[in-house]
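Side project, low priority. Logging it here so it doesn't get lost.
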Amino acid sequence: MRRRVYKLSKQNIIKFVAGIAIVFALVLIIVTVLSSGGTKLKDKDLEAYNSKNLNEKIEYLTNKIQINTNDPRKASIELTPTSLYDELPNIDKYPLVVEGDGDIDIEIFASPEKSGKGMDGWIVEVAEKFNSQGYNIDGKTISVSVRNIASGLGADYIIANKHLPDAFSPSSALWGNLINAQGGEVTLVSERLVGNVAGILVNKSTKDKLETNYGKADMQAVLEAVKKNEMVMGYTNPLASSTGLNFLLNTLYYSDSANLLSEKAKEGFTEFQNNVPYVAYTTMQMRESAASGKLDGMVMEYQTYVNDGELSKYEFVPFGIRHDNPLYEVGTLNEDKKAVLDMFKEYCLNEDNQDLASDYGFNGLNSYQNEKYDTMGGTVLQALQLWKENKDGGKEIIAVFVADVSGSMDGDPINQLKKSLINGAQYINDNNYVGLVSYSSDVTIEVPIRKFDLNQRAYFQGAVEDLRAVGGTATYDGVTIGINMLLEAKEANPQAKVMLFLLSDGETNEGNSLDYVEPVISESGIPIYTIGYNANIDALQTISNINEASSINADSDDVIYKIKNLFNAQM
């Protein structure tokens, strides 16, 4: 049997290819139309979803989530008190921004507003110029090294004797007094390197209201307005921030000028604190919150205010003691190092470098005088304890921890998450209520919300120890279940303060989307504190910003310290 052999002419080949192209084009059109229709359907679905009330939204979302419940085991818990200082990371976590190479070199801890980058780099430029001058003592070259470190953190290193610099320049003198009150040793070398002032930023409409209702916009007016729910105020954590510490003491002073630690002062602070929705972790986070425009007022230093164009919509109301960046000798230096420190002090204070400081935004509001409250270290220390005990106004706290146990958390991230939760739990007061949720592709209620007594603490630790990282990442499903647990708990305790802690790498690839969960977060009003492990920190900040909570980028070097500090402040 003969087979037919078909030969395609060039013309037939062209027709064949053209036909294939037409088919592909038709398929593409169909897909585009279907896709467009799908998008419209999705938009329509979202529009219908947004018309629901909060409970209906949560029910809609939870119906799509696979929810498991665990039977937690009790772990053996450690009852020996620990110190936050025990978790200070290696000092190399905060590298030198100026590294001197003289025969005689002194290291200085300097606060970030003068040892950072750009307009926050005054002391960096001064130190580099000083090192280039070729100064010497008895033929030995001299230099200074500068380490950028927050005032409260620098004080912790000195108090703990974990790393002692030769000199310390915090934002305010409160930290020097606090160090000496806790067994550290610092000696004042200069009361002022550059001038600065702490203040409250109020938007222009709020300032007008304060002037109308109270005669002028000042600290007293702000405190009264917050107490009466006439303005929404935020301030920084006094355990870590110079401005926050100053604000705490000033609030107590305005409540009782005769005694910052009296019952009257405590009652006045509690009345104010009951109406404060937001305590930021650092001044830098407060700066970021300013951009949202959700707060009528917040604390900030003047140098930051004048350098940040975003803050021009606010008016600056000074308060408290001045932040004049004092300089301290740490411990007892030898004569050569004392001489270098004194030479550097004089160099900082010369006319050229003070003019340079003005260019960097310092030395403004020089006419402002200190408030006359007690700044001795013992008083400061007791005020911080008072804040810790009364910052929630006697209200119970209900918190749910939502832990990412997806495959992307495997290895160091999940190990650090577990370690930080176990160690940080020691800073949770036992009269608070705590629950634990984990999520990967589905969601597991590891520990239901109960009072954080020894029994609950043991179940919590056992559940944390047993967490394993595997599977996909349904972050917003975990958040949804955490919020639902908190709202149910609040029904039984309406006066309680509720919060959620999300511990994650920030990635999401399954489950509900932010489009659907964001309205639930917003309408619930529950602050979500996010802690990122080697994370997509922008995604986590987006979640925290919804209700003005803090976001911490806690890499493996200092995650334990940061989380302990956060729990110490919030729990």
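Brief comment: DSSP finds 21 helices and 19 strands in the chain.
Revisit when time allows.
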